[in-house]
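Here is one chain, start to finish.
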Amino acid sequence: MFKVFITFKTVAAMFLISLAAACATSNPEHLDTAIAAGFKIVTPINADQKAIFAKLPKNTITPVNYRGATYYVLPDSSNGMAYVGSSAQYSVYREMRYQKQMSNEDLKEAQIDELNNMNWGAWGGAGAAFTAGFP
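Its structure:
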């Protein structure tokens, strides 16, 4: 019993460390998608760019008119840079995000179907407690 407890503590500690590392990551998935869609990494240099960068909402792509052209900007405040794309690149970004969302939904549905199709008879299933209510 003592050995099982030590193993459980070790596994729990490893899980918490990996969870902390995942939460500390400063590169969310949408930044990777922006790069894959063709967005360029730009560091604000002049005063105009720095002023625009400071006003942008975090984790959101915002259309910005700069010197007569419209750019789509995704700020990365923690690294002091922005991902900048054209309207064509923004369209590719939206399509990629949509495909990813649909893929995740399909995966969830498949997992639910798998659980529903399992043979719960040997385990006993939910039993009368869930079908007839609790006493």
